[in-house]
Structures are given as structure tokens and as C-alpha cells.
């Protein structure tokens, strides 16, 4: 996968360079609606807004997804569910505990959305768009983290705060290639919007 992501990054960077040259050529030809990234305005836009361009919800989703994946893998839940032989008594109990906590979590989210005048509904009482729809990815990630951490704790694999933190950090480490690929992809997308829109 890293090879595929590295090729994607290189393709995005090459496309960005071609886009810079194309924007310069088209603006030199005075094509309507095209702005050059090599102009004073373009350089100021790119350098002055670089950080704010990267601050997209997808970046947060990647981080939360990595943390959730780390919790699910480091707790042993995914590998235990894939095993063909039966689970040990402790793992069965851990699975019951994690399922119970997941059901409680789901019940709380349902109460925050299904009751009249619920907190996560929009002003008009709908789910989409609403605070619930804006927080859907974080809610799912937190559910996966809760499930993985509770399973790991009950199974004796994540029994201290340091190991729980390590599980989340290892997930972010596994998501790191996606975070690296995120930068050139967002840069290319935002450059296209700046030049042509």
C-alpha cells in the first residue's frame, strides 16, 4: 500500500507543477477566469493560506480513524474475531463487556437524536444537516475506540492507561502514510479551485 500511496503523492506533486505552469501560461494568454499561481496574488494565496488549506475535516477523520483502527487491532479484537478456533472464556467475557458498552453508547446517541428537541438535531428537527451529521464520523470513531479499548481492558491486553494510549498512537502511526498523501492531494485540489474558480 505504501508503494501505491507514494506513487499517488508523486503524481499529485507532478500534477501540481504542471498546474502551476498551465496557470501561468493561461493567465499570460489572458484567458477569462484563470488566475496564475506564479503571480504575486497567487504566491501570497498559497503561502499565506497553506495551513488553513490543510485544515479540513478529512484530516481530523484520518486521525480519528487511525486511532480507532489502533484500538481495534492492539486490543486483539479483530484478530480474535477472525480466528477459527473458539475464544477463551476471558475473551468471551471481554466481548460481552465491549458489546454491552457499545450498546450503551448507541443508546445514548439515539437519545441525543431521536427524542423531540434532541440536542443533536438541527433547528428544524432533521438529522441531515444537523450537529449529528457533522459529527457522524467522530461518533463512529469513538464507538470503535470504546469497543476496542473495553475489549482490550477486559481481555487483559490493555490494562493500563499507557497501553491504551499506545494503542491509539500505534493506529495514528499506521495512518501516517495516508496523512502524508493527504497534503499533496489537498494542495492540488485547492490549487485547481483557486486557478479556475
Walkthrough of the structure:
The chain has one domain (2-196). By secondary structure, it is mainly alpha-helical. The model has no long low-confidence stretch (mean pLDDT 95). The protein has helices at residues 2-28, 40-48, 50-54, 57-74, 77-82, 89-114, 131-134, 136-155, 161-196. The longest helix is centred in the last third of the chain and has 36 residues, at 161-196. The chain is elongated, with a radius of gyration of 23 Å.
Question: Secondary structure elements and their pairing?
Answer:
Elements lengths: L1 H27 L11 H9 L1 H5 L2 H18 L2 H6 L6 H26 L16 H4 L1 H20 L5 H36 L1
User: What is the count of β-strands?
Assistant: 0
Query: How far from one another are the termini?
Result: 33 Å
Ranges where pLDDT stays below 50 over 5 or more residues in a row are: none
Number of domains: 1
Can you summarize the main beta sheet? none
The DSSP helix count reads: 9
What's the gyration radius in Å? Answer: 23 Å
Helix content: over 70%
Beta fraction: under 5%
Give the overall silhouette.
elongated
Q: Which class best fits the helix and strand makeup?
A: mainly alpha
Which properties best describe this structure?
197 residues; mainly alpha; 9 helices; elongated
Quick structural summary:
By secondary structure, this protein is mainly alpha-helical.
